[in-house]
Amino acid sequence: MADKVKYSVRKVHYAMFKENSDTEYDTPVALPGAVSLSLEPQGDVSPFYADGILYFNAVANNGYTGDLEAAYFPPQFLKDVYGYTEDATSKMLTEHANVQPKPFALLFEEEGDSEGTKFAFYKCTATRPSRSLATKTQTINPNTQKIALTMSPDANDTVFGMTQPETPASVKTEWYQSVHRETAAAAAE
Questions:
Q1: How far is CA 63 from the centre of its chain?
Q2: Which residue intervals of 45-150 are DSSP H helices?
Q3: How far is it, in rounded angstroms, from Cα 181 to Cα 24?
């Protein structure tokens, strides 16, 4: 049964690219504590006029940009994506200014009143987490962290994949075990 409404983001995972590959991924890793995810499409419309009319209209799909807000970005995410290092003795994490963030796939689920939709964005880059800290008062309000995301087309010119009500149960059940991509037959159509 198809969803009538969508709400909430949950089960966020990330998967790093395998060494020397831009289309294969390591096993997805859970990124708990998602608060919100906002995405805006990127790309321009380029109208071309001929014969006194709009003759051709080209639309560029440059993916999406947005923000992922979470309760906390764990140390493993900081090491995997931003190249933080961990001192063997002190266990202190260190951020390095000359390390570029590594691209990754982002998987998550948008809940729905029936079953929801699972998404896999295939090539994401992220800014370092912002931090906003406030003092504790009569009530405790958790602080959150936010990263800005850029979700670009990958080496296969694909931006993302998503499930539908007709998606086989086996694909939905195994969604967070690997990064699912369209089959070669579907890509050739």
A1: 11
A2: 75-82
A3: 10
d(CA 133, CA 144): 8
Residue-level length of the chain? 189
Q: Phi, psi (5° rounding) for residue 76?
A: -65, -40
Instruction: For CA atoms 165, 10, 13, 69, give the dihedral sign.
Output: positive
The amino acid present at 111, given as its one-letter code, is E
| Placement of tokens 């991924």 in the chain | 25
Give the pLDDT of the chain (189 residues) as one tens digit per residue. Answer: 677 888 899 999 999 999 988 889 999 999 999 999 999 999 888 888 999 999 998 888 899 999 999 999 999 999 999 999 999 999 999 999 999 999 999 999 998 887 889 999 999 999 999 988 888 888 888 899 999 999 999 989 999 999 999 999 999 999 999 999 987 655 555
In the structure encoding, which two tokens stand for residue 122, read together?
């295939």
3-state helix, strand, coil in the chain (%, to 5): 10, 40, 50
In one-letter notation, the amino acid at residue 120 is A
